[in-house]
Amino acid sequence: MAQTVRSLLAPVRALFGGTTLLIAGNSLLGVILPLRMEAAGYPVALTGVVMAAYYMGLAFGGLYTKRVILRIGHIRAFSAFAALTAAVCLAYGFFEFPAAWILLRMINGFCIVGMTTSIESWLNDRSSNETRDRVLGFYMLVFYLAIAAGQTLVNLGTGGGSDHLMIASTLIGLSLTPSR
After folding, report:
1. Which residues neighbour 52 within 8 Å (Cβ) at sequence distance 6 or greater?
2. Which of 41, 107, 148, 177 is deepest in the core (most CB within 10 A)?
3. In 40-143, beta strands by DSSP E
């Protein structure tokens, strides 16, 4: 049975909205942190280590976030990970030394895995075997467009200030608000 795109995506529209906000905020964060480190005069190698810590968090998240999701459920897990990520975005403004940023990047990566795992599990649950390929295809489209949109937000705010951190935190926090 052929479905229109509208009827196919109606049950997951809120998830796509949350994904857009979450990924745009996280993408902005990934652009502004190295710019802040460069402005502070940190060596390029140190900037690379700080930014790579995110991927260490992703790896740990891949190992452990499933347990959190199974224990407290998709909605609570997503909410906890999003709230923690929003707080981490703001914490970068309080700690201007690389060791703290390494820890914050690891937490950020861990939480992003938890949120995307929650979203993708919901998408799998909300789609049938016949529609799953199209739903996940649209999800990936939304995901990558949100990355591009988030990176363009670097043009907002003042360079080197906390404006970008607040924008990223706000976007990630708003991913918690249901939309219909």
Report:
1. none
2. 107
3. none
Q: What is the largest CA-CA distance in the chain?
A: 59
**Torsion angle (degrees, nearest 10) of CA 112, 113, 116, 118:** -120
> What would the two tokens of residue 139 be?
């999800």
Q: Report the C-alpha gap between 97 and 56 in whole angstroms.
A: 19
What gap in Å lies between CA 61 and CA 55, rounded to an integer?
9
Instruction: Print burial letters for 38-58: b (CB count within 10 Å at least 16), e (below 16).
Output: eeeebeeeebeebbebbeebb
Q: Quick check: 107 and 144 in contact, CB under 8 A?
A: no
Tokens 């861990």 identify what position? 110
Q: And the tokens for 137?
A: 């295809």
Q: Are 28 and 150 in contact (CB under 8 A)?
A: yes
pLDDT tens-digit map of 12-70: 788 888 999 999 999 999 999 999 999 889 999 999 999 999 999 999 999 999 999 99
The 8-class DSSP code of residue 94 comes to T
> What is the distance between the alpha carbons of residues 129 and 139, in angstroms, rounded to a whole number?
16
Token digits of residue 153: 């937000």
Letter for the amino acid at 26?
A: N
Spatial separation of the C-alpha atoms in residues 89 and 173, rounded to whole Å:
10
Distance between CA atoms of residues 140 and 37, nearest Å: 30
Residue spans of alpha helices (H) in 92-162: 98-126, 132-152
- Tokens coding 162: 């906390």
